């Protein structure tokens, strides 16, 4: 009997864990959980950081590519309808399409846009010709792709007084982001040229302006201005400048674009977001046919 009791006692002692063993096991398990949780945090942080950076880079590059494409297709920086002294302002006093009595579809943009849009380091005004577009698959017109005139007297007697170039106006403008303090948004508006009878219509208007990039924080403001200076104007005769003069307007051949963006991939509800990434991009684009080059136009209706 004593032998049986001793055996049962010995078996009972070997089948469980002592308190020190249990404590050691809990410590090891806790340390393992801490390590695993840190690994999860690191993986999540890396994923969010990479996503934010890729998103910011992609959005910034798309915006810059869009601007560069418009610059390459542009004929003028500013408003070609103005006299040399006011060609940097849109609409210029001599603009036959948009003036005091003729306003764009949708009206003039409301603040923070300025209805007098002047070429500057935060405002880019481009004008592209309205071109003939023949979309018929068979025997397209020989003037396909050539500019379309704005005929003399189109709006009435002597309005305009002579045949003029029919121009679309594209305006890029940096404005404060009303939802993100200290950040800015890049917006675009398109004010199309005239739909001449017998000719295809010009491109559709974008009005009110459309936001194409958010999270802009620079280039940093160093001249007391309230907006980032992202546009630089290039010329063979003048040094690059962010504030072109009236005398320089006719010789602008290209535009430099500098954008610094902060991206967190956040929504308005997310507050300040997590793991912000900062991206800076630069590009330059040159006009293929500026105002000093011969303009191939078509005088008549096909």
Folded structure, characterized:
- This protein has two helices and twelve strands, in the order ααββββββββββββ.
- With 302 residues, it is α+β, with helices and mostly antiparallel strands.
- The chain has one domain (49-286).
- Strands 1, 4, 7, 8, 9, 10, 11 and 12 form an eight-stranded antiparallel beta sheet that branches. A two-stranded antiparallel ribbon has the order 2-3. It has a two-stranded antiparallel ribbon with strand order 5-6.
- The longest helix is centred in the N-terminal third of the chain and has 55 residues, at 19-73.
- The relative contact order is 0.16.
- Residues 267-271 and 294-302 have low confidence and may be disordered.
Question: What is the strand and helix layout of this fold?
Answer:
Elements: H1 2-14, H2 19-73, E1 76-77, E2 89-90, E3 117-118, E4 123-129, E5 149-150, E6 164-165, E7 167-176, E8 184-191, E9 206-218, E10 231-235, E11 252-263, E12 277-286
Distinctive features:
single chain, 302 residues, 12 strands, two-stranded antiparallel sheet
Gist of the model:
Helix content is 23%, strand content 25%.
